[in-house]
């Protein structure tokens, strides 16, 4: 992590990165050198239009990005707008060509098989798209609904959700030379959800991720909290924060979660509604100022870069870059920036409910302190307690499936323990023998980032399945097992 958060930072323009298909990776090199990078994010368009016409608007933004030295590259999201999207590798390659700068591909595991993910990695490498962040993906718009939702059992998606940690293992098992990153959602407000995100992040780093990209959100305490957590664990890794430029349409639909798993205080939403009621030019100016102010804050908090989403036209890109340059020159002192951020938001709290959990005290103080161990807030008293039947199942199956158990006994135990799959193929060994198919996404390597503020699954039927896994791990004093890396495939 570059730039300690307690030191003022001189604004420094990153080097202009040019595409090179000879095997070099200028984006990775710049991150490793500690350059502060700005990436412009575009969504892979829906497939309802032909590819060339659907890519016209993102290409126009990419071509304009070529003229801005502060912009280091393009970021391309996969299936964020829906399952029926164009090929993300083709989109990333097209925007790299249009901008003359590298592309970062956020590859979704939504409705994805191992074959789709493996094929995307191979084609990305062959087309010069060498920077990849695999994510599990949010709820598919084609996920089947339950016949009896009151029973709390969701049918599984026919194609499934390919876990981001498993995707990283595929990358590290290949020889594609991809520079792989890990996604994380730090905008969680109960201890279980937050630490499930952190443990999953540590698992991804142990599996081979070399940098981190956050979800987009507005709570700067949460962005500083992530930096302090990495410092607490003595982990030095480049971290890119996603920042979203809100449009009037975004503000109209913000209650429906424009970013699944990220919510803010109702006071903030009310503020956005008031801002959108201003005349159009004032409304746009306010959102430009907020996004640029957040970008500057990320730099001062020690982030290695920002991935800016919500830029839909070349003209908007010009306006936001002008505002970014202005505020980079104006805010060079962290304490002054904190005051400016708080005053701009009338000192509101961003947590979606009173008493939201933060892992550390003294976040976003006017005289910004560096991380100290005594700032850590205790979390163990907030862990969920294991269910009796979960504890019994875990203890019984551990014995019945031990290496010394007779084969007939182990086979019978597997059959009885997990009737929804064939002999434990779901990966229940990673979940203290709980069946991962009780998670609507059938995840076994850790939680996704889509939970609601109260810890409810994004499908809305029950608390996140991994709360039960966390409860068993905590009761056994084995939380470290939740952050173990996934061995590379032979």
The count of domains is 2
The biggest beta sheet, please?
8 strands, parallel, barrel
Give the H and E element order: HEHHEHEHEHEHEHEHHHEHHHHH
Q: State the distance separating the first and last CA atoms.
A: 32 Å
SS class = alpha/beta
- Using only C-alpha atoms, the radius of gyration works out to 22 Å
Provide the residue-averaged pLDDT: 89
Unreliable parts:
1-22
Task: Assess the beta-strand content as a share of residues.
Answer: 5-15%
User: Helix count?
Assistant: 16
Task: Provide an overview of this structure.
The protein has 490 residues and is α/β, with parallel strands linked by helices. It folds into two domains: 26-375, TIM Barrel; 383-483, no CATH class. The protein contains 16 helices and eight strands. Strand 2 (71-77), helix 4 and strand 3 form a beta-alpha-beta unit. Helix 6 runs parallel beside helix 7 and helix 11 (280-300) packs antiparallel against helix 13. The longest helix has 21 residues, at 280-300. Mean pLDDT is 89; it is low at 1-22.
Based on the model shown, name its key terms:
10% strand, 490 residues, globular, alpha/beta, single chain, disordered N terminus, TIM Barrel, 8 strands
How do the strands and helices of this protein lay out in sequence?
Blueprint (H helix, E strand, L loop, with lengths): L25 H8 L3 E7 L7 H4 L1 H10 L5 E7 L10 H12 L3 E6 L5 H13 L4 E5 L28 H10 L5 E6 L6 H17 L3 E6 L3 H13 L6 E6 L3 H5 L13 H11 L3 H21 L4 E5 L4 H17 L3 H11 L43 H13 L6 H11 L47 H11 L15
Parallel strand pairs: 1-2, 1-8, 2-3, 3-4, 4-5, 5-6, 6-7, 7-8
Helix pairs in contact: 3-4, 3-12, 6-7, 11-12, 11-13
